[in-house]
UniProtKB/TrEMBL annotation, chain A:
SUPFAM superfamilies linked to this entry: Histone-fold
Cellular component annotations (GO), alphabetically ordered: CHRAC; epsilon DNA polymerase complex
Known role: Accessory component of the DNA polymerase epsilon complex. Participates in DNA repair and in chromosomal DNA replication. Forms a complex with CHRAC1 and binds naked DNA, which is then incorporated into chromatin, aided by the nucleosome-remodeling activity of ISWI/SNF2H and ACF1. Does not enhance nucleosome sliding activity of the ACF-5 ISWI chromatin remodeling complex.
Compositional bias (Basic and acidic residues): 93-120
Protein species of origin: Odontophorus gujanensis
CDD domains given in the database record: HFD_POLE3_DPB4
Taxonomic placement: Eukaryota, Metazoa, Chordata, Craniata, Vertebrata
Subunit architecture: Component of the DNA polymerase epsilon complex consisting of four subunits: the catalytic subunit POLE and the accessory subunits POLE2, POLE3 and POLE4. Interaction with POLE4 is a prerequisite for further binding with POLE and POLE2. Heterodimer with CHRAC1; binds to DNA. Component of the CHRAC ISWI chromatin remodeling complex at least composed of SMARCA5/SNF2H, BAZ1A/ACF1, CHRAC1 and POLE3; the complex preferentially binds DNA through the CHRAC1-POLE3 heterodimer and possesses ATP-dependent nucleosome-remodeling activity.
Subcellular location(s) per record: Nucleus
Keyword annotations: Acetylation, Coiled coil, DNA-binding, Nucleus, Phosphoprotein
InterPro entries: CBFA_NFYB_domain, DNA_Pol-Epsilon_Subunit, Histone-fold
Residue span of region Disordered: 93-143
Name of the encoding gene: Pole3
Origin superkingdom: Eukaryota
Domain named Transcription factor CBF/NF-Y/archaeal histone: residues: 9-73
UniProt protein name: DNA polymerase epsilon subunit 3
UniProtKB/TrEMBL annotation, chain B:
CDD domains: HFD_POLE4-like (cd22929)
Name used for this protein in its record: DNA polymerase epsilon subunit 4
Primary subcellular site in the record, as a coarse category: nucleus
Tagged with keyword Coiled coil: no
InterPro entries: CBFA_NFYB_domain (IPR003958), Histone-fold (IPR009072), Transcr_DNA_Rep_Reg (IPR050568)
Keyword Lipoprotein: no
Job description of the protein: Accessory component of the DNA polymerase epsilon complex. Participates in DNA repair and in chromosomal DNA replication.
Protein keywords: DNA-binding, Nucleus
Gene3D superfamilies: Histone, subunit A
Name of the gene encoding the protein in the UniProt record: Pole4
Length: 143, 81
């Protein structure tokens, strides 16, 4: 189910905001330039994904992980991204951990209220949800 | 700048791009996050590099040609050509 790269675009509003924050105050951006940057960003993700996947395959893994993406940055000569990406990843991991703890605590409280020891499923599986903030680490990519 | 984020690309959209690759079977949530963040850094970088050309042309509006110039001039952007 191949989609053309042009169909997989990133939200204009966010792209525009990132561009404006990167440039000095008072600088504008033409619609054409903004579109071109947005398309370039999509191509960047596609290329980085492919590159990262090579590292996963080299490691005989079927799941692309964060380390593979960082290796891809090196390969693509975007080494200067690596340090800020690692920082962001640390923050993200802490946030995710905080969320898990919060849900575990909530479940524990609920259990003691119900006085029911049996629980049907694990805390952290929400396989059906296709939202941005997903609970599980791995996702099925159907191809 | 670094870990501070005021703009955030939605992970669902980035995930859609990852899924478009037929060779990719599984991607961790963290991998999608790092890709999203890398794309943001990429947008910052290419915008700044293109702006150099707008400045040369004494313009305060970034135009398509500034981008084309940056892509041609910067080695790391060769994959866009």
């Amino acid at each position: 189910m191949a989609e053309r790269p042009e169909d997989l675009n990133l939200p204009n509003a966010v792209i525009t905001r990132i561009i404006k924050e990167a440039l000095p105050d008072g600088v504008n951006i033409s619609k054409e330039a903004r579109s071109a940057i947005s398309r370039a960003a999509s191509v960047f993700v596609l290329y980085a994904t492919s590159c990262a996947n090579n590292f996963a395959m080299k490691g005989k893994r079927k799941t692309l992980n964060a380390g593979d993406v960082l290796s891809a940055m090196e390969e693509m000569e975007f080494q200067r991204f690596i340090a800020p990406l690692k920082e962001s990843l640390e923050v993200y991991r802490r946030e995710q951990k905080g969320k898990k703890e919060a849900r575990k605590d909530k479940d524990r409280k609920t259990d003691s209220e119900e006085q029911d020891k049996s629980r049907e499923d694990d805390n952290d599986d929400d396989d059906e949800r296709m939202e941005e903030e997903e609970q599980n680490d791995e996702e099925e990519v159907d191809n | 700048a670094g870990a501070a984020r005021s703009a955030r690309l939605p992970l669902a959209r980035v995930k859609a791009l990852v899924k478009a690759d037929p060779d990719v079977s599984l991607a961790s949530q963290e991998a999608v996050f790092v890709l999203a963040r890398a794309a943001e850094l990429f947008v910052e970088t290419i915008a700044k590099d293109a702006y150099v050309y707008a400045q040369q042309g004494k313009r305060k509006t970034l135009q398509r040609k500034d981008l084309d110039n940056a892509i041609e001039a910067v080695d790391e952007f060769a994959f866009l050509e």
